Every structure is written in structure tokens, then in C-alpha cells.
Amino acid sequence: MASRPPSHTTASPSSSSSSTPLSRLQNIANHMASPSVTSFPPDAVPQAPEDPLFGLARAYKADDSPNKVDLGIGAYRDDNGKPWVLPVVRKADEVIRNDPEANHEYLPIAGLAALTSKAAELLLGTGSPALSEKRVSSVQTISGTGAVHLGALFLAKFYKVNGANRTLYLSNPTWANHNQIFSNVGIPTAQYPYFDKKTKGLDFEGMKSTLANAPDRSIVLLHACAHNPTGVDPTPEQWREIAAILKEKNHFPFFDTAYQGFASGDLDRDAGAIRYFVEQGFELVIAQSFAKNFGLYGERAGCFHYVAAPASDAANTTTRVASQLAILQRSEISNPPIYGAKIASIVLNDPALFAEWQENLRTMSGRIISMREALRSKLEELGTPGQWNHITDQIGMFSFTGLSEKQVQKLREDFHIYMTKNGRISMAGLNTRNVEYFAKAVDSVVRSTE
Ligand code: KET
Predict the structure, then answer these.
(1) What is the rounded CA–CA span in Å between residue 317 and residue 321?
(2) What is the distance between the alpha carbons of residues 374 and 372, in angstroms, rounded to a whole number?
(3) Which keywords belong to this entry (predicted)?
(4) What is the CA(382)–ligand 1 centre distance, in A?
(5) Catalytic residue among 70, 203, 233, 256, which?
(6) pLDDT in tens, 27-40
(7) Residue 244: pLDDT over 70
(8) Cα–Cα distance for residue pair 345/362, rounded to 1 Å
(9) Nearest by Cα to 135 from 324, 326, 318, 322
(10) Nearest to 96 by CA among 329, 300, 353
């Protein structure tokens, strides 16, 4: 084999054709420069691990097995395993394209008012006294992540006791990004028990006792419905008990709602917990995503809402809060993106399109529910060791299977099935073509690792 010249003298193929002696010299000089000139050495900027969820998506894409199955990121797929542009979204898109007045101007800082007002109604209900009493301030955000972030920033700056930030309690487990969003703005986080590994349901006693023993005026993050990653939601009765504890302890509720309409297929029902808390007179905030229920993932449509408790000065409080949210928003993103906001707003403001959207939501939640049934019955048919009732008991986009990290790894290596290490599967990744393949793969790894 011919020996290769030392690498620092090798011009890259793309530069060799156009390189001049001077640029080659420059290249050599660059390679010889001391590596210590950076202001960001490894001890200051250590190599961070890749985001697990987006890393999973990348690995899935690179896998050329015809059998591969993507159960990673929470994004809806149709029965052919393809992304689904909701028919109602196509119609709204046509409305935009046919509008001679449509342009690419900036939105106001708080976003598209026609969206934010309807978005608040969607959560609180059209007749909500909070709306008529002007106790709600809404800001359009960069989808749900941006809404959680704006809320986190607001609380970091303005919700303090004796000058210190309050601790925010997250369910164990929770959406992984919650931890880093809150710690990025300096809000300390703690956990409350949530998932009971034995029953694969809610650890309600653990949750209640941790919240009851947390310091007064803690912040409690609650998933409004279709809990991510477990698919386990409190019952209406349990929500009432949770609300009673939060009230007793003066805790501050922070709702994250990314799956309204995805859990039960019914928008009102999926907003039940939020509406109950508002009825109980809480002051609270809500981060709302339209990524999943409109299939607008990459368009980044969402809202952040502040709701004041009923009081004589509530409308003034709301105005003050809105003024500070505007300052935060201006410095962070100036104003939010327009396209997804217009799509959602067109649908929310047109009764016929709204009805069609509800139909589209039922199509998505219905297909997911039928996949839960198919998966459970296949596993039971195969006699796969263990109980599988939790697959149909859990609700929403995800199922927390109970598979171990080792089993998850084996599913990926031996069967090209991609899911997060904690055993979460996105139910939307299953379809009539691959559910049997998946069930058989699970059966095989469960037996071989018993
Ligand atoms: N809250 C929760 C609970 C949530 O699951 C997500 C997304 C978001 C907020 C934010 O979504 P956005 O696209 O910013 O509106 N979850 C899925 C995608 C992700 O992690 O970004 C997921 O867990 O797969």
C-alpha cells in the first residue's frame, strides 16, 4: 500500500482543485496553530451527549433495514407509517394561499391575537369566567417548548420568596426537556413520585405525600393529560385531591398541555384538569402546544397563558403580568412565527373547520387506541411473560412498556426497533403492518432476558 503523506499536508478534495499556493500555506498554518487558543477549552465546554430523542431519530433514519420501526419521538404517523398532514390543515393552508392580503410582516410581540384568544377558550372553555373577567393573559410562543421556557423565565424573575427562587416539582418520570428548561433559568427542580413500577399505573399516595410535604409555595408542574412518558393520568377524583393539596400548601400550578384532543379524542374532556383548577380559583400558568393536535410540529405553534385568581384587582394584575411577558418575549424571540399560528387560528375561528378538526383528532386518537388493543392482544396471544393490561389502560401518544434498558437495546440491535431507553414507545409508530412484528420482537427479548 502506498504510504500516505502526513495529514496536515493533504488538501481536502474540494479545496485541491481551487487551491492556490497561498491558500495551501494558510491551510498548513491553520493546522499547525496551537489548539490552546480557544476561549472554550474542554473543561469549560465539555463535549455534551447528543439529545437522546433526536439522536434516536437520526439513528433510525440511518438504518437501512426494511423492517425498521420508529417508536421514538412523539409524532403521529398514519397506518402506512407516514407523517399525516391533517386534511383540515390542508384546507387552512389553501385559505392562506388564496388570501391576497397575506404577507410576511412581523406579528405583534404577543403573537396573533386571533389565535391566542381562541387558544385560551380552547383550554378554559368558551364561557369561562376567567375570560369574561379579563383574568387571562396569553402570548403566542415557539410551540410548547417555547411556552414552558417563557413560563420558566417569568417565574425565575418574578416568583420568589425572600429573594430566592422556589423549587419546581416535576413528576418522576417526566418529559426529559423539563429538567433542562427550568435549570437553564436557575429554577431548582425536585421530583414527586408518579409512576408505580409494580402496577404500571399512578403512585398516587407517593405523589400526594411528596406534594403535601414540599415547602409551601413550591411550583408544581402538572401534565394536563396524556402524561409523557407514562400515558398514566389521574382520574377526575384524583385531580380534585391533588388540587386540594396544592391549595392547602399554596403551591403554584404550572400546567403543560401538549396533547389536548389526543388522550380521549375529546378536546373538552382533555382540558378537564385545567378547567377544574381554574374553577377552584387558582392563580396558574399553562404551556400549550399545537404541535401534536394540529400536526404542526415543525411550524412551532403554541401559547403561554397566565390566569389570575378571582380578585378585585385581578384584571390589573393580568395587565401587569402581560406587560412583563411582552418584555421577556421581545428580548428572547421578538415576535413569534406566523405560518403555524395562522393555520391554527383559521381552524379555531371557523365552526365548520373546527368540527372537521375534531374529526381529524378522533381519527388520530382512534388509531392509537386501536393499536393499543392490537398490541395487547398480540402479546397476550403469544403468552409473552408478564401482564400487558397497562398497554390499553394507559392513554395518549405514549405507552410506558416496562421494558428494561437492556431489552430496549436488544430490540434495537436485533430487530431495528427504536424507542427511548426508559421503555417508552410512541404508539403512533405502530400500524397494522408492523404491530405483529413488534409484538413478536418484544416476546423474544422478554423471554431471552428473563
Ligand atoms: N410538553 C410535553 C409534555 C411534550 O411531550 C412535548 C414534546 C412538549 C411539551 C413540546 O413540544 P413542542 O414541539 O415544543 O410543542 N414532546 C415530544 C417531542 C420532543 O421531545 O420535543 C416527545 O416527547 O417525543
Answers:
(1) 6
(2) 6
(3) Aminotransferase, Pyridoxal phosphate, Transferase
(4) 33
(5) 256
(6) 777 666 565 789 99
(7) yes
(8) 20
(9) 318
(10) 353
